[in-house]
Predict the 3D structure of the following.
Amino acid sequence: MTSIEQIRPPEQRLKRFIESDAFKQAVTALILINAVVLGALTFAEPGTDARRWLMLIDNTIVAIFVIEIALKLVVWRTEFFRKGWNIFDFVVIGISLISVAETFSILRALRVFRILRLLHVVPMMRRITEALFRALPGMGAIIAVLMLLIYVGSVIATDLFGATSDPEVEMLFGDLHSSALSLFQVMTMDGWRNEVLQKVMDDGNPYAWVFFMAFIFIASFAVLNLFIALFVDALQAEHELAQDERIEELDDKADDAALARNEMMAVLKSLQTDIQDLRETLSKREQDDRLDQ
């Protein structure tokens, strides 16, 4: 009896192999091993046996990655380049091939980009990365609002604290760009109390804390929460999109299973017809034998 695997075209079997969990897990394991090898290469001295073995492992993994990309090109052909992650993989592997020569140190450093393939291979990392890119347009608007707040705060701070004889305070708020840098430090809350606030208050501005507290509340807490809300919203949208893709994938598998079932039924029906014909032939022969007797 002809099997279902023989009925399907070779590209379909190759596609199922590439999309199988075992294949994806093997690629993930190779990426992790490659990450360890690249880290170990930074410790191995040139010319040592350890470095030669590490380079052999690294080059072997690169060759496997090239074969992986080649198999995907065989299956999807030009469709392969319609997905951004596929283009990312293709570029990373291309860089890996260039960096194998190790002619320049910059090329050797580019090998580490192979580890970034984990962002594509691991589903959770891929969803988070895609959510981050989805949130970029909104982040641009929030950054613009933040820059506006820093600009307005810088003008106010320069007017309030810039006219001083204290060289330290003048360095912090003596002009617009110095005030902007100081307020950026205040916004990050990195040593802002002792390095900024205390110096301004000691310079004869006892109520300066009101300005800085208001700026921190608006620029740090409010805007930071906007970033978080935007990213969470993008992550939720990406999760819903992943669910839709999962449903479509299950539908495709259901269609493949239905196709396989129909093909199996066709084979069984053909066998039943052959068996029925064989029975009729045998019955006719028996009748002929009886007549001859």
In short: Residues 4 and 260 are 7 Å apart (CA to CA). The two ends are 37 Å apart (CA to CA). The chain has a mean pLDDT of 81. The chain is about 85% helix and 0% strand.
